[in-house]
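**Protein of interest**
===
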Amino acid sequence: MVRPFVSLLVAASATVVGLVVSWVGATAHAALAARFEPDPAGLALGFVGASIVGCAALSVAIHWVGALVVGAIHGLLGLLALVVPFGNPFAGGIFSPVFQITRMLSKVDPAFGDGATMFYFSGTALVVGAFLVGAALGIRSRRLAGPSSPKAVAVSSSLSAVTLVGASALLLVAGGTFVQQIFQLLRYDAVSAAIAVVAGVLAGLAGLLLRWSSIGVILPATIVFITGFVLFAALLPLPPSFPGRLPAAYGLVMIAGATFLAAAIGGAVRGRDEVIEESAVL
């Protein structure tokens, strides 16, 4: 019973600390980037915060419970942010619990509120949460079946690459569009919200594929993480009309990539033998 508790403690602590650091850094970086001013401090904080958030996924190396619980919370709040339609949120629109949470955080610190708004309403929380839940269930299920065949590993690796890249691309485009529609045009966009939900479904499937291969997830996850950092650091400028500018500027693709990569590494470290050995206890 020690491992589940430790994994939950690690996952929860890493999530809270990582999100706070990344929100503060990303909000400052995005504000200065909009004025084409360099911000090495915000850039560093955003990167460090995303890496700490990834440590929550790394907790699967200890036990799958921590990732499952944290992922379920992320996923639920992320889903509510996308599927609860409301009008002008600043003029008495339909009650949105997630929007109320972000406003309360804004009263503590505007950077918290802005960062949380982007994290939840872009679909990043849903993508990260769905992947963590899928990864936890996938790694847990290893003890219920025999070793994976080379063919199963190859197929799993290919599907992982497609689903991870697809989820990240939809997060960037559809998530950015949804945030833009809500907070710049003050309009709920059901189409972009639905596509962002699809991104979450793809991420959850990618997490489940850790059942067959952790190694196969590492390469596409690394690509997503590096791409997210490049976009966050503005090394790859995006045109002003591109809706993915907001998720890129706030390092959201980088956070998703860090989660994917850390979970894959944690799954590889955990290994099938340890999971089977633990089954006698659980």
In short: DSSP finds eleven helices and no strands in the chain.
